[in-house]
User: Fold this.
Amino acid sequence: MRIIDAHTHTWTKDIISEKDRRAREIAAERAGIEPQLDSPIESLKIAMERGHVDRAVVLPIDSGLSQTMPLSLQAKTNWHADEVAKYPDIITFVGIDPRRGEEGLIELERAVMEKDCRGWKIYPPNGFYPDDDKFYPYYERCVELNIPIVIHTGFTSRFKHVKYGQPVYVDKVAADFPDLKIVLAHVGVPWTDEALMVASKSPNVSVDVSGWQVFASRVPMKVYQMIAEAKISRVFPNRLIFGSDFPLFEYAMPLEQWVEFFSNLRLPDELTDIGYPQITSEEIEKVMSRNAARIFFGERS
Ligand SMILES: [Zn+2]
Assistant:
């Protein structure tokens, strides 16, 4: 089965802010592991090979308006574009905070047209609601450029603001831009029902399961329940996408195990006995690669 990891990150300590470095240390302490201050694309490539992952999508985040960053917005775009240029099976998005206004719009266009960035990553917990009318020119431009957007939804790190991560703040954008391909990252966890509700009412909205390996490693029933609900609400199988958030959750479940877990996923009797329909291997194949191939790589399916 072909595998696409639709949600990954790469960085080195030269490109992250002091605050993000601190947040990584706090998160590592909580998980009882060493903080990961360097995770260049080579680490992703090694994990992909171990997990038999064919393609991956890197999603850079622009925290430049809320933190002092070592690189300018443009230099950071270039850094990511140069990294993925080494590997034909890895693509990158561009991370831009839409509060940058015109400067950000120009960078969005440059990133896509000149640096081969394939979509826009939005990170609302840096301090904004994504459905602000002021950001509509960005969404219009993404439709014109025919690129997808991935919006972080759900839980965030220590110094960011989680209220902006509620999936419902994407609903107006999804309704107003029916041709815009939108992916809600992490199925909005812990607002999972809300993310599925937003996706269920808008056919242009998908969800990615990155980060859920934390549950898979400890309480797999939570993953089964989410998939069962996604199927009932018709988001599964065509609009649920496999992803890992590599390397953030390697401590909980390495990518190769996460691939294994999801590729073989079936609902337990406890759920099918109370009426949830079982899922099939054809449906799982859509989640593991065909949905991402369509949304991120422009393949027909
Ligand atoms: Zn992420």
